[in-house]
Task: structure prediction
Amino acid sequence: MRPRHRGFTLIELLVVIAIIAILIGLLLPAVQKVREAAARMQCSNNLKQIALAQHNYHDAHKTFTNGVGINGCCWGTWMIPILPYVEQNNLYVLYQNFNGLDVGPNPIPGTSGGPRYGQTAVVSTQLSVFTCPSDTPAPWNGGWTKHNYALNAGNTSFFQSPIPLGCTVGSAGCTPFLGAPFNWYTGGDVLPPPWTGGDSPYPWTDGPTDPTKGPMGRPVKITSIVDGTSNTMMASEVLQSQTNNGLQGFTWWGGAAGYTAYIGPNSALPDVLVGGICGTTPPDPPCTTTGTTTYPRMAGARSHHTNGLNVAMCDGSVQYMTNTIDINIWRALSTSRGGEVVSIPN
Result:
């Protein structure tokens, strides 16, 4: 007789499928953990390159790069001068009118305030060294790129003055600004009557009428970091808004190119994008466009990593800071001349 060929029964097939499903369920978390570990390592390496680039820039120019341009907003955040030091000199030479504005009394012919000519090519380029693999690239208005790293603007707000704005240092509830390795809106109108949260009026240049108003983002020398380069943060992660016109992560713009430590890592408190646009597409970070004297213009450090984020220190090292870090330690690590006694938690 011919041997009978026996196939799978339905029950046997279901058992095999169930076993495969269990194995997948067991393996998937492990695969995800490996993938996230690799992304976190790449992100750490990106910050290391940014820190080394800042030091190479300092060797050449005797200062770190500016934080924002002299106009406070656009046409010159740190993203531009750092380009030659992250092997992107071809993009750097394309960019025109660095630290200009292209509006006001003498705009460049044919422009009206937005990127043109070389600028468009530069700000439309997604740069891997500035992009964390744990985040999703989300171009602004479908073309200009967003990125994932911002420079340390200190322990208060982008105005780099005490909080609440106008308070007397030493009085109850007044948080003093204690220095930062990068200047931001320190030449801005912090308290015009009435305060609106804006910057100084164009052209934002030193003048005899008010010497306290002047070019913003003045470059800082490493010697001014008196708290020690190993105890002072240089840069951290931020998230890209997944909303088309959301400005978080749009680091070509001054209001998104930095972070402050007034709020902790991955805080539930919102970024304050005065003069900007908040994203609303999940998982966009919390955000508001309204600043107050007690909660003025600022942005926090954020990432999609597990329970924390990477930061580069001013000595070039990279550390992982957990979301649960004590807020006082976090702020102390952001200051450049606070005189705090602090050590980086393990």
